[in-house]
Backbone:
């Protein structure tokens, strides 16, 4: 590591003010940022810890919507999002206990790792990302690998999830990191079905619209027979080729539909 200053604001307003410094970096759960600092891939002179902001923590359910504070840990989501079982199950399967008790939903969604689980839940649920400045629809929020609609210094304060009629998340884990080699989140609402895929594409999380159309007419695994995604643009690495990931998308989507049903 190296020497840096750290501020510990207790309100969102204080954090926003602290992040106005040109070389300041927000620190949430630190599951990505701390390893990045250790490898000297980033070297901000000041970290602004968000862990002491009580107003960004907690899970609540009201009127068919589950709201998760941006500073809520994965473990707290797993324990507290009982009104949205698929979301709670997803959170309970992230990393290991150490990661789940430190990492936060806001940090994960802000980072937008192409293999992270939460982006699939946010996009698959048609959720709304709430920041200190505005509300952003999931379809507008994710803009590519590690890229989002967030502006400099903007902080995720909450994520609002409309609770579907049925939903499930299935992932094929990379065994060392427990990130998704491919993960599929399927959610059925009264006005249609959403299918979000993480871990597969070089562009990050995406919606499989062909599957959504098929499932909106017939919510069953059989409705997906004959459908496939192209291997073009899929991640290809030592863990799996692009073609393998494309194959997993179809397989896991069927499993998610079966689990939801």
Residues:
């Amino acid at each position: 590591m190296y020497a840096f200053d750290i501020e510990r604001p207790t309100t969102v307003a204080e954090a926003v003010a602290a992040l106005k410094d040109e070389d300041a970096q927000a620190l949430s759960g630190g599951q990505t940022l701390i390893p990045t600092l250790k490898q000297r891939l980033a070297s901000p002179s000041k970290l602004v810890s968000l862990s002491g902001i009580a107003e960004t923590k907690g899970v609540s359910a009201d009127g068919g919507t589950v709201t998760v504070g941006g500073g809520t840990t994965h473990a707290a989501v797993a324990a507290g999002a009982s009104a949205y079982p698929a979301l709670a199950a997803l959170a309970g399967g992230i990393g290991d206990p150490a990661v789940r008790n430190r990492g936060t939903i806001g940090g994960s969604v802000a980072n937008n790792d192409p293999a992270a689980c939460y982006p699939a839940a946010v996009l698959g649920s048609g959720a709304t990302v709430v920041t200190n400045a505005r509300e952003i629809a999931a379809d507008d929020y994710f803009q590519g690998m590690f890229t989002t609609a967030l502006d400099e210094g903007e902080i995720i304060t909450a994520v609002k999830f409309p609770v579907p009629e049925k939903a499930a998340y299935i992932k094929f884990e990379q065994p060392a990191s427990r990130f998704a080699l491919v993960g599929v989140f399927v959610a059925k609402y009264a006005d249609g079905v959403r299918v979000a895929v993480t871990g597969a594409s070089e562009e990050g999380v995406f919606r499989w619209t062909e599957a959504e159309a098929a499932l909106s007419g017939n919510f069953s695994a059989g409705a997906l027979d004959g459908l496939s995604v192209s291997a073009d643009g899929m991640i290809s690495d030592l863990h799996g080729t692009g073609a393998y990931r494309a194959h997993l998308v179809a397989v896991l989507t069927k499993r998610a539909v079966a689990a939801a049903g």
